[in-house]
Write a structure and sequence with these properties.
Elements lengths: L1 H9 L4 H8 L3 H10 L16 H11 L9 H8 L3 H10 L17
Helix pairs in contact: 1-3, 2-3, 2-6, 4-6
């Protein structure tokens, strides 16, 4: 099981995202990473590069059946991937995230 934790972390997810993806607590995920011999990144991590999966997820999120893309929950059901994993990949692909009711989020003033 440590390999799953290590693989997700090496892909660029943070410890919290890894923990959420695997249904573990932050401290349990951190312990597993250390036990697997993974060198932890400094706080703030490294920026993720958009990859093919991120671009595919972004396409699903941006365009859907009715002109607006699928929600993260709908993508989760369609792909079987975890919510945090999908959200992280969308952000890595530079997608503008929508609010709770599907509207673009307002810019912070």
């Amino acid at each position: 099981m440590s390999l799953d934790v290590a693989a997700l972390y090496e892909e660029g997810l943070g410890i919290r995202s890894v923990a959420e993806e695997l249904g573990r607590s932050y401290s349990a995920a951190r312990r597993e990473l250390l036990a697997a011999g993974v060198e932890l990144r400094p706080s703030g991590g490294r920026p993720m590069e958009a990859d093919q999966l991120a671009e595919h997820l972004a396409a699903l999120y941006r365009t859907g059946q009715f002109g607006r893309g699928l929600s993260i929950r709908a993508i989760q059901k369609r792909t079987g991937l975890g919510y945090a994993f999908i959200r992280t990949r969308l952000i890595a692909a530079g997608v503008e995230m929508r609010g709770q009711h599907g509207r673009p989020r307002k810019a912070v003033a």
